[in-house]
Amino acid sequence: MELGLRDKVAIVTGGSSGIGFAVARRLLREGAKVFICGREPERLEHSLAELASLGEVQGTSAHVDRPADAEKLVEAAVAAFGGLDIVVSNAGTHLKGRLEELSVEAVEAHFRTKVLGPWELARRAAPHLRRRGGGRFILIIGQAGKVPGRGVLASAVVNAAQHAFVKSLSDDLGRDGILVNAVCPSRIASPLTDRLEIDEEPYLGRSLEQQESGWGRTVPLGRWGDAEDIADAVAFMASERAGYLCGANIDVDGGYQRMIF
């Protein structure tokens, strides 16, 4: 299927590893020009070198929870490639813990990274997307926003705010031809889940490979996915084939999340 992504310009935050790196790689293979960012300069340089063989890619070190860094990121991408068509907001973490274990400061930092960071990124990107006649803003949102639990209180609240942001922003920008949507991973093997502990985990403390046999029992497909599964969904969301998707969220989880909304 031709996705119509050739020569489109994309920003991918958190693009130096895990899901962000897979998204950048997939967009490059579709012919897009990609600008990535990451927090660790050494890892960023290594990732850029690995991606360079696939197409036009540049990047910069940035912390997207800092407004100045979000502005710098957007302006650097536009300067590098002459415009902007796609933004994939992927940077973020999972904050585990019950009420008494989490400080206000930790929750605030989590909120800044996952809500205010994308907010500022969208604010800075929107004028450039309008100049191109429209575009895509895609947010990666973890499962806790739809599946709250006692051990994921902070992530449940913050991720739910991300869903509200997507819905409201899609209404705000849709008339400009800027389609705002979300891709929602769960049970995806990545550097983040390599350190993750889940309530039903029967083999606490073992490697991800050892754990998968237990965790896979809860997934209808009987296995975990990988970052490429998320990258495939993002590439579709970014494409011309998703031209009537606006304010949507797509679960990529092997059927694990059993909600009806």
Helix content: 40-55%
Give the CATH class. Answer: Alpha Beta
Let me know the CATH homologous superfamily: NAD(P)-binding Rossmann-like Domain
**Strand percentage, roughly?**
15-25%
Low-confidence stretches: 201-205
Broad structural category: alpha/beta
Overall structural domain count: 1
Could you tell me the radius of gyration in angstroms?
A: 18 Å
- Biggest pleated-sheet summary: 7 strands, parallel
Provide key terms for this protein.
261 residues; alpha/beta; Rossmann fold; 7-stranded parallel β-sheet; two-stranded parallel sheet; 7 helices; globular
The gist of it:
By secondary structure, the chain is α/β, with parallel strands linked by helices. It has helices spanning 18-29, 41-51, 67-81, 104-131, 153-173, 208-215, 227-238; strands at 9-12, 33-38, 57-61, 86-89, 135-140, 178-185, 188-189, 225-226, 249-252.
Structural overview:
With 261 residues, this protein is of the alpha/beta class. It has a single domain (9-189, 227-245), classed as Rossmann fold, CATH 3.40.50. Helix content is 41%, strand content 16%. It contains 7 helices and 9 strands. It has helices at 18-29, 41-51, 67-81, 104-131, 153-173, 208-215, 227-238, and strands at residues 9-12, 33-38, 57-61, 86-89, 135-140, 178-185, 188-189, 225-226, 249-252. α1 (18-29) crosses α7 (227-238) and α4 packs parallel to α5 (153-173). 44% of the residues are buried.
